[in-house]
From TrEMBL:
One of its GO terms (biological process) is regulation of DNA-templated transcription. It comes from the Bacteria. Residues 251-320 form the OmpR/PhoB-type domain. One of its GO terms (molecular function) is DNA binding. InterPro entries: GAF, GAF-like_dom_sf, OmpR/PhoB-type_DNA-bd, Sig_transdc_resp-reg_C-effctor, WH-like_DNA-bd_sf. Pfam families: GAF. This is Acetoin dehydrogenase operon transcriptional activator AcoR. SUPFAM superfamilies: C-terminal effector domain of the bipartite response regulators. Keywords: DNA-binding, Transcription, Transcription regulation.
Length: 430
């Protein structure tokens, strides 16, 4: 009879006394804190557009192994399983997320979607990111996640290695409820990773005579599209629901003043660049303020060059290098992909709400309307109702009318919605 051996990486509630935190989790939390991650304001960034993701996935060595993974794991993660199977690259970026479609839609709210970054330095403690950071299998249960948005979920992940160089080439993860971290899940995922590594070696031996052997690190880097290479170290600027900007790149962050945030936002929104006169007009409503703009630009460049060389604005015309994205652009990208739940979660509030710069006011309204129209026309009733209860949707009669129209006749939520609609009609009609 086999004896069950417990592991410090296994999220077994019987292994650790109630109220205590496993050392492996505590150490991961410490790394997240050192990276200045905020557990209440974290959302994994979307690093790939659809075309870029498809191009990168096709070139990734795990692409040819997906039939093996689907046979061993995804086949059992059907629409009633309550389980998702995710496959990521060595940097923690999710390339495939498959399984229970209803759960996949819910996972959008925490940005657990294809193309998002779940490395530990960005997403904090999670099975995919921490497994890669430690280079071994791990289970993370509910509130062991550093990000409080993920506390309803549990996950098991195992790194995948190149069979010859032993370098990490990716990660396989199962995410869901408590069943995602039961005693049988880790051996199953470990067996799948071993099968993938074995099949990679067999495939390589078959092709050795016709194709020279190449290390996985070379394959991963040289098959990466140029746009994706840049995104590996891309800076993200957070301006939604903030009066200042928080710029994050890799494991470092810096806060910019409102004026500098306005400049960076306008340049991020106008990728082809802006003349000094046009940028002055968008900032102050006057194209003649170019001297004032140049003084601000000198201060901004000095600050950013000290923080991270390569992300400061360029000139003639003024423009940002490709390594800078803003969170508002990610919201728009998610909406365009139909990921409404993820877009709503990523929308942390109005863009630089206290700014009165004409250009910022225009962008703020553009993002607000894009979110509103996309949700109003295409979102599920659950997502639309979540939006209706935000600051932007609370007084929007059209949104509440649409919620009422979409709710089933016997829904217990109808009475609340009807009362809110009647109150809005009374207030707005008076």
């Amino acid at each position: 009879m086999l004896e069950l051996v417990t592991s410090p990486w296994l999220a077994d509630p019987d292994v650790v006394a109630p109220g205590t935190v496993r050392a492996v989790v505590r150490d991961s939390w410490s790394r997240a804190e050192q990276s200045q991650l905020d557990p209440d304001r974290m959302l994994s960034p979307l690093l790939f557009e659809s075309s870029e993701l498809n191009e990168y996935r096709q070139a990734h060595p795990l692409a040819q192994m997906m039939p093996v993974i689907r046979k061993l794991l995804v086949r059992d993660a059907d629409n009633d399983s309550g389980m998702l199977v995710a496959v990521g690259d060595a940097m923690g970026r999710l390339l495939w997320v498959e399984g229970d479609q209803g759960l996949k839609s819910k996972a959008e709210s925490m940005m657990f979607v294809e193309g998002s970054d779940w490395s530990e330095s960005v997403a904090g403690t999670s099975a995919p990111g921490t497994a890669l950071a430690l280079d071994h299998a791990i289970q993370i249960r509910r509130d062991e996640h550093f990000n409080r948005l993920v506390h309803a979920w549990s996950c098991t992940a195992v790194p995948v290695h190149d069979p010859e160089t032993k370098a990490i080439i990716g990660v396989i993860d199962i995410t869901g409820g408590d069943q995602a971290v039961d005693r049988h899940t880790m051996p199953l995922v470990e067996a799948t990773a071993h099968a993938v590594e074995t099949e990679l070696m067999v495939s390589r031996l078959r092709n050795r005579d016709s194709k020279p052997s190449t290390s996985s690190k070379f394959v991963l880097f040289n098959n990466l599209p140029s746009s994706a290479k840049n995104k590996a170290a891309r800076a993200t600027m957070h301006i939604l629901g903030r009066d200042t900007a928080l710029v994050t790149i890799e494991d470092r962050s810096i806060e910019l003043t409102q004026r500098h945030a306005e400049i960076m936002t306008l340049l991020a929104w106008n990728r082809s660049g802006l003349s000094a006169e046009r940028l002055s007009e968008l900032l102050w409503g006057d194209s003649s303020f170019t001297s004032r703009l140049r003084a601000e630009m000198v201060r901004l460049r000095k600050l950013l060059d000290k923080f991270h060389p390569g992300i400061a604005p360029e000139s003639k015309p003024y423009r940002l290098p490709e390594q800078v994205e803003i969170d508002a652009q990610q919201v728009v990208a998610l909406l365009d992909r139909g990921a409404h739940r993820a877009a709503l979660s990523a929308f942390r509030g109005a863009l630089l709400p206290d700014s009165v710069s004409p250009g910022i006011e225009e962008i703020r309204e553009e993002v607000r309307l894009h979110l509103r129209e996309s949700l109003l026309n295409d979102a599920s009733v659950e997502v639309l109702m979540d939006y209706a209860n935000t600051e932007q949707g609370l007084d929007d009669l059209d949104v509440w009318h649409q919620v009422l129209k979409m709710l089933p006749a016997k829904s217990p939520k109808r009475s609340h919605v009807v009362a809110h609609v009647e109150n809005l009609v009374f207030v707005q009609g008076s």
